[in-house]
Every structure is written in C-alpha cells, then in structure tokens.
Protein: SDR family oxidoreductase
Amino acid sequence: MDRYQDKVVIITGGASGLGQAAALQIAKEGGSLVLVDLNKDGLEESKKEILAAAPEVKVELVEANVAKEDEVKQYIQQAIDTFGKIDGFFNNAGIEGKQDLTEDFGIDEFHKVVSINLDGVFFGMKYALKQMKKQGYGSIVNTASVGGIRGVGNQSGYAASKHGVVGLTRNSGVEYGQFGVSIKAIAPGAIMTPMVEGSLKQIGGENWEEAGKEFVSVNPMKRFGKPEEVGYLVAFLLSDQANFINAAVIPIDGGQSYKY
Structure:
C-alpha cells in the first residue's frame, strides 16, 4: 500500500516497542518519519531497521524528553523545518512506573509517571495542533492503555496518567474536528514490548515468564499481543481512511477491557 506516500509522521517513543513497530509499518507504506526518544542507540537501531525495509524513505532522529515542554516544541519545529508539514503524529512515549498500592506510592514516582505519560502527551498535542490547525488537516493518535479505561491495580500513577490521556483525546477531538484534525487514542492491553517485559520482571523477578502467563490469563485470547499488531492499527488510524474517527478510544487488548 502507499497510504503514506508524500506524508510526514512524528512518532515519540520511536526507539522500541509500539513506536518502532508503527514507524516500520508507516515507512513500508511510503511515509517520511521523525522519530523522537531519549534512547539514542534505540533510535539508530529503529532507523537501521526502517531503511532496511524501506530504503527510499526519509527518517529524522531527535533525542528529546517529552516531559520537557521546550524539547517538545523543538522536535515539532524540527519536523516543520525539515518537511514543511505534519500529516500525522503518534503521541506514544510513556513509562509504566512502579508497582505498588496507592498508599505506598511515592509522590515523586507518581509525578514522574504523570509528567512523561500525561504532560508529554499534552505538550505534544499543544504544538502539533498549532501546525495542524494552520494546515487545515492532520491526525493524532495518542497512546492510552487498557489501564486508561478500567482499573489495573498497583499502578496508581500509570492508571491516572492514562485516564488523563483518554480525557485529553476526547476533549481535543471535540475542539479540533472543526479544523479538519482528527484525534483518537489506542488502549493497548498486554502487548509484549520491552516496557511490559520490564514490568513483569518487576513483579516476578526470575520467574517473570510465569508472571506473564498470569498477566494474560485475564485476556480472553490468552496471549500477548504483538507490537506489529498495534503498528497496523496505528497506521490505519493515522491514515486518510480513518479521518472520520475522532474523539474515540480504540482498545487493542484481546477483549480484556470487556471482560468482567
């Protein structure tokens, strides 16, 4: 497919996991990319994989902390300076944070998770929307979580931040639809990414693979999702084919969010 021919997409968290998977799919469909992350080596690895699969596409790399507004403003401006526009934005960077009961959750840890997962999404939207409103078109996909539409337990900071992402998505979709911009969020469940693997190791230590089996037991499909499955969804949602999907949150969780 060539849905992304002559299009430019920014992806935060592009060094691994969902960001890397979405970038690879969009590049295969002809899209130019601006990949943003703090992990320089991971960014270089993503670029290497992308160019191996789609050698004709352009890939810009930006080291930036999404929790710092000035750095967000800079990566948005770099995309505009390089390509002259922003067609799509996968506002994806995030962390899971500490596993603990709410009463034991430290305020510094809480603020850290919220600053990356929620402030980072807000800053990204703030500056991308300025450009998209000026253009009269654009599409944003924010990464929420199944933890943003239901409780997950022992993850106060993560759940609060991802519920916030859902609220920002719905509110901004209502605001900016009139300007030709569609905004939606994905709500992944158990997707086997480095972040999820790290979380399982936090829970299960050396027995993290057993913890993983318990983790997916609440999932009707009884398996982990694959990053590329999320990449396919993001590539669709950012494309012109999904322009009328706005202020919506789309679960990709094997049915977990609907199981009681």
Residues 8-258 form a domain with the Rossmann fold fold (CATH 3.40.50.720). The longest strand covers residues 181-188. The chain has one domain: 8-258. The beta strands are 8-12, 32-37, 59-63, 88-91, 138-143, 181-188, 248-252.
